[in-house]
Amino acid sequence: MASVHYVALIVAALALLAGNAGVSTGYCYYSKYDEQEDRAYNYCHTTLTFYWQSKPIGSLTFSGPFNDWENAVFENGIAGGAGWFAGARGVVKVEVKEALQRYKYVIKLDEKSRECK
């Protein structure tokens, strides 16, 4: 029997290919600005909400340092999930494609999160 989380990731991937995987919302704490590098350092709490056919199927929330400048790559820990992602643990790899605008998220669930409940 396939894991619910594994199925949810497949559905999210298919929705992404269709151009409507979901919405990213969050808030950040500004920590410092480096004038020489022209970079701001933040700590963010972000929730990814996934949709299938206009209906929410679940969400993942992750937190950590968020270096929002082009080509930055980092990982934040998953704090939890809801819906199809209830009980999820792991990390979200963030690739900044365009600062303050576009990001690529790669979700890496740990083994325990992939088990059926």
Structure description:
It comes from Gonium pectorale. The structure is a single chain. This protein has one domain: AOC barrel-like. The N and C termini lie close together (11 Å). β3 (55-66) and β4 (73-83) form a beta hairpin. It is mainly beta and 117 residues long. The protein has one helix spanning 4-17, and strands at residues 22-34, 39-52, 55-66, 73-83, 90-98, 102-109.
Task: Describe how the helices and strands are arranged.
Blueprint: H1 4-17, E1 22-34, E2 39-52, E3 55-66, E4 73-83, E5 90-98, E6 102-109
Antiparallel strand pairs: 1-2, 2-3, 3-4, 4-5, 5-6
CATH class: Mainly Beta
Number of helical segments with 4 or more residues: 1
Average pLDDT score: 80
Task: Enumerate the strands of the largest sheet in spatial order, edge to edge or round the barrel.
Answer: 1-2-3-4-5-6
Please tell me what the overall shape is. elongated
What is the string of helix and strand elements? HEEEEEE
The count of domains is 1
- The CATH topology name reads AOC barrel-like
Which stretches of 5+ consecutive residues score pLDDT under 50? 1-8
- Percent helix range: 10-25%
Strand content: over 45%
Structural class of the helices, strands and pairings? Answer: mainly beta
User: What is the straight-line distance between the termini?
Assistant: 11 Å
Per DSSP E runs of 2 or more residues, the count of β-strands stands at: 6
Radius of gyration: 15 Å
Could you describe the largest sheet, including whether it forms a barrel? Answer: 6 strands, antiparallel
Q: Give the name of the CATH architecture.
A: Beta Barrel
Looking at this structure, what is the CATH superfamily?
Allene oxide cyclase-like
